[in-house]
UniProtKB/TrEMBL annotation:
This is Thioredoxin. Residues 242-277 are annotated as: Disordered. Residues 5-240 form the DSBA-like thioredoxin domain. It comes from the Eukaryota. Pfam families: DSBA (PF01323). Residues 251-260 have a biased composition (Polar residues). GO terms for molecular function: oxidoreductase activity. Residues 266-277 have a biased composition (Low complexity).
Length: 277
């Protein structure tokens, strides 16, 4: 049996991160079905922080999707803010993204609220620590196995398919309880304390400066096999096989403490191809 570790750098407000993870999950399922002995291999998913909007102020309530999208379109257009044109562009991009989403079983609501994702990343990092601690202490039947992945996927669902405000600590605390991370009141108190903020800031800084990442998602298999952007299932499957067999793929330098590019519909951040930046 092989344990294949996949490090994913992402931001909870990146739609291609959500779709890319679904493509990865499909590739993993296919690998375990068709690769000789693949059903005996296990996958460990580790999530890392990236800020699509690093200057977003912490503690400020999120902005509705349509409003933030219009702001980004104005910025990209050099200040041109004709309301009718903006609405037409926004509608076209939402239709494109909705069509992509349906291919992945995602019903984009466009009701989520954008803002700083620092607290969301703190929660994700906390889930990762709790999962790792539980794994070390467990002598079998680890109830927190996959906890971090559950937290991230629920964040994606609540933001992209619901109306979650990504900046809301109350929302994050409720999600933590729902996914088994901890009791709502305890998690809310932890979020209010600010604990873990420096660590996710440093991880996000490293990704941009040392890792030279311009966008997300980025997937790194076994520390060396790198996929930038939400590639298709076949590309993920090939990378998994290479990671299993020790083959080489084009890699990127990896930070020892942490583990895009592309075309595609725009969102509140600039999304082109299969990633957001």
């Amino acid at each position: 049996m092989t344990i294949i570790t996949i490090d994913i750098t992402s931001d909870p407000v990146c739609p291609w991160c959500y779709m890319g993870k679904i493509r990865l999950d499909r590739a993993v399922a296919l690998y375990q079905k068709v690769y000789p002995g693949g059903r005996h291999d296990t996958f460990r998913i580790v999530w890392h922080a990236f800020y699509l909007e690093p200057s977003a102020p912490v503690g400020v309530p999120g902005v509705p999707w349509a409003e933030r999208h219009a702001q980004k379109l104005i910025q990209r257009g050099g200040g041109d803010s004709d309301p009718a044109e903006l609405e037409a562009k926004g509608r076209h991009l939402r239709e494109q993204l909705a069509a992509k989403g349906r291919q992945h079983g995602i019903a984009f609501s466009f009701e989520g609220k954008f803002g700083s994702t620092r607290d969301a990343h703190r929660l994700i990092a906390l889930a990762g620590r709790k999962e790792e601690e539980s794994s070390k202490e467990s002598k079998g039947g680890d109830k927190k196995a996959g906890l971090q992945d559950r937290v991230v996927m629920q964040l994606f669902r609540d933001f992209f398919e619901g109306d979650a405000d990504i900046t809301s600590r109350a929302m994050l605390a409720g999600l933590a309880e729902e996914t088994g991370l901890g009791q709502r009141e305890a998690i809310l108190a932890w979020l209010e304390s600010g604990e873990g903020g420096h660590e996710v800031d440093e991880e996000a800084r490293w990704a941009r400066e040392e890792g030279q990442m311009k966008g997300v998602p980025r997937f790194v298999l076994q520390g060396t096999h790198v996929i930038d952007g939400a590639e298709d299932e076949q590309a993920f499957l090939e990378a998994i096989v290479k990671a299993k067999e020790g083959g080489e793929t084009q890699g990127a330098e990896q930070d020892p403490t942490s583990s895009g590019k592309g075309d595609g519909p725009g969102t509140a951040s600039t999304c082109t191809g299969s990633s957001c930046s």
